[in-house]
Amino acid sequence: MIKTDLSKIDSSWTLFIDRDGVINKRIPNDYVVVWEQFVFHNGVLDAFRLFNQLFGHIFIVTNQQGIAKGLMTEIDLAILHHKMLTAIEEAGGRVDRVYHCPSLNTDNDPLRKPLPGMGLLAKKDYPDVDFSKAIILGDTKGDMGFGRNLGIITALVAENGTFEEVDPELVDYRFNGVQAFVDFINTI
Question: Counting beta carbons within 10 angstroms of the beta carbon of residue 156, is it exposed (0 to 12), middle (13 to 18) or buried (19 or more)?
């Protein structure tokens, strides 16, 4: 466990955030493939406004194997992400970049979480990213593994109050949703 004093968060820190299940509602046993299926969790747009003020960099890191399964195309995903980012920006938030992995979970793609590839790409694109000052907000063991593989703080969130079974050694903090993380940050 990394546990650190989160009261030290400032513009030198980086936030990595998962998409499905954290930013938007996950569709059980299915994929969000068009904008009409994309539903922001309550409070997430407001949270991005705070994140914009706190973090120097904000990256969305998302596995999107629906592309490899033929359920959507890269263009479909780009359209969906454009609309998502527009909504975040209109609410006063910001995202520096969205990284995604289109591969199947059986492909062993280095970009696919829990492997650290998307984080390493962010570091390559933004050399000032300091993994000792970074957090991943995610809702799965893959997100927590991604964090551990990068050596960053892990925060497991569960919008529905039910946390996925995750090895406690992978989790530094647990929050009942993104809003609970925001409330925690606001109190320190």
Answer: buried
Do 44 and 23 form a contact (C-beta atoms < 8 A)?
Answer: yes
Q: How many residues does the chain have?
A: 188
Amino acid at 151: G
Separation of alpha carbons 20 and 1, rounded Å:
25
pLDDT digits (tens, 9 = 90+) for 24-81: 999 988 999 999 999 999 999 999 999 999 999 999 999 999 999 999 999 999 999 9
Number of separate helices (H) and strands (E) present in the chain: 5, 6
Residue 25 tokens read as 């509602």
Apex 10 CA angle, 9 and 14, nearest 5 = 80
Written as one letter, the residue type at 40 is: F
Under DSSP, is residue 14 helix (H, G, I), strand (E, B) or coil? strand
CATH class, 25-131+145-187 region: alpha beta
**Cβ proximity of 122 and 59 under 8 Å:** yes
Beta strands 134-138; 97-101: pairing state:
unpaired
Which residues are designated catalytic?
18, 20
Q: Tell me the CA end-to-end span of the chain in Å, nearest whole number.
A: 20
Amino acid (1-letter code) at residue 181: F
Quote the pTM value: 0.95
Helix (H) or strand (E) holding 153: strand 153-157
Beta bridge partners of 16: 59, 136
